[in-house]
Amino acid sequence: MIGSSTSSIVGCKPYVSNHLSQADTEELNDEVQETFIHHNRTYQRFAVNSNTYFAPVDEDETLRLRTQQDVLSMVFDGRLIFPHIQSLRRVLDCGFGTGSWAFQVAWENPNCEHTFCRTISEWKMPLLWEAPSVIKIYRPDPSMRTRAGEGTRGNKVRGIDISPHHHNPNESVDNLYLDIDDLNMPLNFRSNHFDLINSRLVAGGINSHRWTGYLRDMFKCLRAGGWVQLVEIDFNAQSDNGTLTESEFSCLCIRGNDAQELPASALRQWSQMYLQAMEQCKNPRAPRRLGNWLRSTGFTEVDERMIPIPMCGWSDNQRELNIGTANQENVRMLLSSLTLYPFSHYLGMSITEFHVLVAQARAEASNPALKPYFPL
Predict the structure, then answer these.
(1) pTM over 0.85
(2) How far apart are CA 30 and CA 27, in angstroms?
């Protein structure tokens, strides 16, 4: 089996329940599609107001997410599913983003039903495709809190996403369901249901108090002998040769005249400030703790691995050099997109201070001599 650090592959023995109910729906207005501009980036108002997700939803971010997916595909040698599952019937993907992983899994497993969750909404909001260019959004009765895409629908397509901004509706197959879901609310799928649950890069959307319940919900929803695979990036910048050091400090002024000592390395400053900003409601240290949390939840055969993801092409190993080269543009973009709102809103950084820090961090991230990487 192959896993990835803070990305884990796990087997479990979930218990069985035969209860399954179905949600009624009522048509939803445009609130989940409403966006606002913050320092020239477009954000989904619903996601930000609910303190769920703080990254933009514009075309630049969609491009970055697709680039990131390509990089992860290189890291995992094109493998979508890590454990060997002889009969794959039902798969749940938590945090599908552009839908690329979900689409590929559905395409390669035409006899498998798939349900995919996006960590955004406060309710289950099915988004039903009548045609690739026609979108209707519905809100189920919150008192029911059950899943669309289950029961008697068979292998018909149901695309559901609170944020349709990143998903291309043309990427659809008959056995693909895209379900709108807030991963901070209980996963009310029936027990003993899924063969595989995939959770990838959701730490920026899971509230700090939710992780225990999130993993417990996964355990309950898996069939006996089912698997869960998790992939998370620890945005704590490191260097392979120790050049990103915290031994020297410089001062960066935030919130007016309130000066704070920060590492001289701009990448280390970025990491420390990301930690400080996201700790307001998330747990940015979660990627380092998933293995222990999974074992405590009751998962067995936990395979936990850390993979250094180069920020640019610096490795002597050709495969890692290719990964770093491909990842350079993703890193350049994420240093801004993941932190513009948290830094300005939670830390009170001016836009000038932000651009200066990001420019310096980008210069370090693209410097092969520093051998920078993020732990995966």
Answers:
(1) no
(2) 10
Encoded tokens for 365 = 């991230």
Q: Is the dihedral of CA 35, 38, 43, 45 positive or negative?
A: negative
Three-state secondary structure call for residue 156 = coil
**Start-end of CATH 3.40.50.150 domains in the chain:** 8-233
Distances from the Cα of 337 to the Cαs of 56, 330, 331, in angstroms?
Answer: 6, 10, 10
Q: What CATH number does the domain located at 8-233 have?
A: 3.40.50.150
- Helices and strands in the chain, H and E counts: 9, 17
Distance in angstroms (rounded) separating the CA atoms of residues 273 and 221: 36
Q: Are strands 41-44 and 90-94 parallel, antiparallel or unpaired?
A: unpaired
Beta-carbon count within 10 A of 219 CB? 20
Of 322, 338, 332, the residue nearest 360 (C-alpha): 332
Amino acid found at 251 = C
Phi (first) and psi of residue 223, to 5 degrees: -70, 165
Question: What does the pLDDT profile of the chain (376 residues) look like in tens digits?
Answer: 222 223 333 333 232 222 222 333 333 346 777 899 999 999 989 889 988 889 999 999 999 999 999 999 999 999 998 998 887 888 888 888 888 888 888 888 787 765 555 443 322 222 222 222 222 222 333 333 333 334 334 332 223 345 656 767 777 777 877 766 677 888 777 899 888 898 989 899 899 999 999 999 999 989 889 999 999 999 999 998 888 865 444 444 455 555 555 567 999 999 999 999 999 999 999 999 999 999 999 999 999 999 999 999 999 999 999 999 999 999 999 999 999 999 999 999 999 999 999 999 999 999 999 999 999 9
Give me 234's structure tokens.
Answer: 């620890």
